[in-house]
């Protein structure tokens, strides 16, 4: 009854199912891996944002780097803004509007500097027009903000290029920017959230990072891929059972698949049973 499973059509179906099942297993495992990775990152960022601010020198140093574990940690730094070294960071979107980040070095009493992202300003009326940028405070200030690692093409997805207008950059890259300054910069930069004393006018603050669902979608996709495995196997078994049932039904009724003709009134009478008149030729 199940010899049909060895026909070319069914052999092709077996191969497809046997290829689909491990593919779905691997896709589900990949999604579960992404869920674990994003959940861990989300938990780390949430803890960092809620941490007590510490002095920025505790987490970074001149010419140093900011570790991934310290990303978004609240820090404080005291000093005076170097308004002459202020830069505009191009192509930064906030509230679905393209504009600039305002990046101003803050020089500490020790003589070292740290880049401070004071916030976002809307782009000018034309591509060549400079935006309106509130001036930084002139006296000594204490800045509180989120510590961020330096930006690179790999980490930001932004491709750097030369030939930009004076005073503008594409990446907040501490090493590249620090090479133009007469003092050493701490690694990374600070995303301003509070300043004391407060500035009379300031750019729009940069929103806190969106922690998101911690990879919830990846978990759902992983479960979905593994459910597809059950669907593939169930569909395969269902097709086999239906084919076998059709063959049994055909055999029971003497259909073409059985190779026999049915008994009963519809079956032609044998030649020996023909009427006597026909045998006599009448």
UniProtKB/TrEMBL annotation:
Signal peptide range in chain numbering: none
Cellular compartment(s): Cell membrane; Membrane
Topological relation to the membrane, as annotated: Multi-pass membrane protein
Alphabetic keyword roster: Cell membrane, Membrane, Transmembrane, Transmembrane helix
Primary localisation category: membrane
Domain of life of the native organism: Bacteria
Disordered as annotated region, ranges: 249-282
Residues that span the membrane, as ranges: 12-32, 223-240
InterPro entries membership: Surf1/Shy1, Surf1/Surf4
Keyword Cell division included in the entry's annotation: no
Family: Belongs to the SURF1 family.
Record protein name field: SURF1-like protein
Organism from which the protein derives: Streptosporangium amethystogenes subsp. fukuiense
